[in-house]
User: What shape does this take?
Amino acid sequence: MSSVMDKFTTRSATPSDAPAILESALSGFINACSHSKALNLTRADVHELIRWIMENSLHDHYSVVIHEKASGKLVGFRLYSVSHRDSSQDFNTFELDVASMNKNVKILCNCFLFHTSRTE
Assistant: This one.
């Protein structure tokens, strides 16, 4: 009897996984996420937010990717990043320009980024 683990491989995500993770998030996750559906968000709307989350999560060993063994296809991922009480120690690849985003993306940003200032 085979188990689920016999069909998939799990490993730490690396920066080389970024293109596949970004595409998966923009084509699969964004269409399945209840927040995105409720806010009628598109790939273009959330591209920078997803890229920011992803790039800030791939510099250490906490994020993971899951591949199907038979096809080698990315079938899942979990992105983790670390925030420090002293924000000068945080790893930030680029500043997320929340002010330039549309209202619905700002709502989504505020769900994920409690420290982001709210602007209308």
